[in-house]
Amino acid sequence: MSTKIHNFANLRCPWGQTRSELLQNFHDHEWGKITLNDRYLYEMLVLQLFQSGLNWPVVLNKRENLRKAFKDFDPRAVAKFSASDVERLMNDQTIIRNRSKIEAAIKNARAILTVERNYGSFVKFIQETIPVQVVHHPEIFEDVPTSSDLSKQLARRMKKYDFFMVGPVIVYSYLQTIGLINDHVDCCPFKFEG
Fold it and tell me: Where do transmembrane segments lie in this chain (predicted)?
């Protein structure tokens, strides 16, 4: 049985109530805020993959190093990475060294280029499934789902284009991150601002 407390006036989402300036800025100004351009979408996909199994503070602390490692998150540049680039990144102590995630980031850059050839942009591909922002109204963060019919649908479409590590849970979290799903709790002052 869940007890809901309704007097949270103007409190951030629980995970945004932190001493980490990086995490707080991410919560306040990026998470749940629509930013639709292909390079940013690729950046967030890479960060989401690296965050899987870890947490946002770890990834955000490595964000600038990941930006350098993945050529300013340019999918055209990353799509050209070879096996020697994978080994180079596996030896880069400034990033999260996980071979599966590094390889997925490269494969996903290639998949984005395929999508761009077919749809004109990665944005158009995603918006074919989710044309406008979906706003949920959770009272407490425990009310936020981990997947949805939309994330399952988009995950299936992405897999058809050979995206890797894009199950419904990761895709749902990705959609939250790029702002196509807004799951800020209703009392959070950054639900629609920031």
Answer: 161-181
113-141 residues labelled b (16+ CB within 10 A) or e (exposed):
bebbeeeeebbebbeebbeeeeebebebe
* Token representation of residue 27: 């919560």
Q: What pTM value is reported for the model?
A: 0.92
H helices of the chain, in order, are 21-29, 38-51, 56-69, 75-78, 83-90, 99-119, 122-129, 149-160, 168-177
Domain assignment present for 12 = no
Structural domain includes residue 160:
yes
| pLDDT digit string, tens, across residues 14-39 | 999 999 999 999 999 999 999 999 99
Cβ-based burial of 19 (10 A; exposed 0-12, middle 13-18, buried ≥19)? exposed
Domain range for 36: 21-182
Q: How many structural domains is the chain composed of? A: 1
